[in-house]
Automatic annotation (TrEMBL):
Gene behind the chain: mreD
Membrane topology of the entry: Multi-pass membrane protein
Domain of life: Bacteria
Compartmental location: Cell membrane
Transmembrane segments: 21-40, 82-99, 111-128, 140-164
Protein known as: Rod shape-determining protein MreD
Chief location bin: membrane
Signal peptide stretch: none
Species of origin: Sphingomonas sediminicola
Family indicated by similarity: Belongs to the MreD family.
Keyword Membrane attached: yes
Entries under InterPro entries matching the protein: Cell_shape_determining_MreD
Keywords for the protein's UniProt record, in alphabetical order: Cell membrane, Cell shape, Membrane, Transmembrane, Transmembrane helix
Length: 173
């Protein structure tokens, strides 16, 4: 055991990367840019990747997210996804406030509880997108939100893992 401890290469004084506090926001921006990929679909089967990454980061590290970051990141997502301006701003800010409330009310959170919480927030996001589309004149049945919701809920562990790997990289661990 002592040999293993001595054999480890330790970089004393190695801390976070320069600009490490911006890595979560940059990853959300890149996830929002995924909607610019040339994917042709008659129905929106893909989830809001920016929101999925935002939730993954926020559930992983609450301290890395100032609450006001939701507004500019949501505005950028609105510009990229074609939502009405202010939709993601309001929804992402409300989600951050809900997650702050959950942080204050729960003593501990496990993997399954985080997955359930993320699924509830993703359901709220998809339902709000469906309702806004209805208000704007689209006649979509409620069942159209099921494919993106299932994909997002099943992809959440992958995005949470990616956020954790990015977090280890940015903190130099």
């Amino acid at each position: 055991m002592v040999r293993a401890a001595l054999a480890q290469k330790r970089n004393i004084g190695q801390g976070p990367l320069p600009g490490a506090r911006f890595v979560p926001a940059i990853s959300v921006i890149f996830a929002s840019l995924l909607t610019a990929l040339p994917i042709v679909s008659t129905s929106g089967w893909y989830p809001d990747f920016g929101f999925l990454v935002l939730i993954s980061w926020r559930l992983l590290r609450a301290d890395a997210w100032p609450a006001w970051w939701a507004a500019p990141l949501g505005f950028f997502n609105d510009l990229m996804t074609g939502h009405p301006l202010g939709f993601s701003v309001a929804l992402w800010t409300a989600s951050m406030l809900v997650l702050d409330l959950v942080d204050r009310r729960t003593m501990w959170r496990g993997y399954w509880l985080e997955w359930a919480l993320a699924t509830l927030l993703l359901f709220g996001n998809e339902t709000a997108e469906w309702r806004i589309a209805q208000i704007m004149g689209a006649s979509l049945p409620f069942a159209t939100i099921i494919p993106p919701l299932l994909i997002a809920a099943l992809a959440f562990p992958v995005f949470a893992w990616l956020a954790a790997r990015l977090d280890r990289w940015r903190l130099g661990r």
